[in-house]
Amino acid sequence: MVETITATYVQEDADWAITVSGRGKELTARAPGIIAARDRADQLVEQLADGAKTTVVHLLNGSALDFTSAYMSARLTLPKLPPLEVPPPGSVPKQQTPATAEKKPQLPPSKQLPKEVEDRKAPAEPAPAAESKAPAKQA
After folding, report:
1. Measured CA distances, 69 to 40, 97, 116 (Å)
2. CB neighbours (10 Å) of residue 100?
3. Which of 46, 4, 39 is CA-nearest to residue 18?
4. CA 8 – CA 6 distance, rounded (Å)
5. Considering only CA atoms, which of 53, 62, 74 is closest in space to residue 5?
6. Cα(68)–Cα(59) distance, integer angstroms
7. How far apart are CA 35 and CA 74, in angstroms?
8. Burial of 119 (0-12, 13-18, 19+ CB in 10 A)
9. What is the pLDDT of residues 32-80, one digit of tens each?
10. Residue 87 half-sphere exposure, CB side, CA atoms within 13 Å?
11. Which residues contact 20 (CB under 8 A, 6 or more apart)?
């Protein structure tokens, strides 16, 4: 037979008080948020259940709907982050040039090309961009 265990949540300032009752016992705990409170309730349910098959009803203000709404809102809401600070122009260092950039790490011998192939490789130089002196089309 499946036995019902009830987990009741009460918000006390920033913390949550949890009371888990069933099978003639009652356990209590506190947690810093509703998500942590739900996790702690699961731990308390395991202590009460002793491996027996159980159904757990989670209640906030006596309502399973209120608990589900509060819990899912907390799970699906992004954390509040401080606003992004954009540095003033000119305070960001310029990008590294190829001469100052770090060299790539040496490949293991099994991944290196034979010397003959390396010698035949031509250094790839980007072609200079052609500047157009034609007047722009007028709309």
Report:
1. 18, 54, 68
2. 7
3. 39
4. 6
5. 53
6. 8
7. 7
8. exposed
9. 999 999 999 999 999 988 878 889 999 999 999 999 999 999 888 877 7
10. 5
11. 5, 6, 7, 8, 26, 27, 28, 29, 41, 44, 45, 48
Beta bridge partners of 4: 55
pTM: 0.55
Pairs from 26-33 (Cβ < 8 Å, separation ≥ 24): 33/74
Amino acid identity, position 18: I
pLDDT of residue 125: 58
DSSP conformation class of 3:
E
**What is the model's pLDDT at position 2?**
73
